[in-house]
Amino acid sequence: MEEQQKTSVGKVNSAAMEGLKLALIGIVFTLLATILNESSISVLIVLLKLGATITFLWWAMKKFSTRNAALKGYTTYGQVFSYGWLTSLFSGIVLACFFFIQYTWIMPETMEEIRQVYISQLSAMRVEGHTIELLENNLMVIMASSALISALIYGLIWSAILASFTKVNPNPMNTNTPETI
Hints:
- The protein is an all-alpha fold and 181 residues long.
- It has one domain.
- It has six helices and two strands; from the N terminus they run H-H-H-H-H-H-E-E.
- The protein has a two-stranded antiparallel sheet with strand order 1-2.
- Helix 1 (2-36) packs antiparallel against helix 2 and helix 2 packs antiparallel against helix 3 (77-106).
- The radius of gyration is 21 Å and the shape is elongated.
């Protein structure tokens, strides 16, 4: 029981550190897109960000799986999937905090532009004034929450896919050297 608790704490700590690194990848690409601010380059930046994110998540899950397999002789799909999802959760929390800081203190003018577009679109949809005011007052929370939710959804999808490639099945001939599948 105590060994399992140590392993899960180690898993959470490791996922938190890898989540921080994953968030830094997202932050660097977001800042790059903000600085360049070119629509023709933005598609390339988004594709590079996606590729870097998936590659890093695969690497982190593979590292966890290999380390776990060295201790137990195998790593299950569920163990690797949950590690990838935890990594994405921590990354999403850091990204949500970053977006809050970015739009509140670093680039408040961008938030005002977003707010104006948001209000004009809601007005065009004939949304009532008090509803617009309520949503406008909570726009920052909505944006930070959407960053967290999107990180969780992407993490769920990619962790489910990548766990199939990063799990380590036990080698039936020798449990000391697991076979990677």
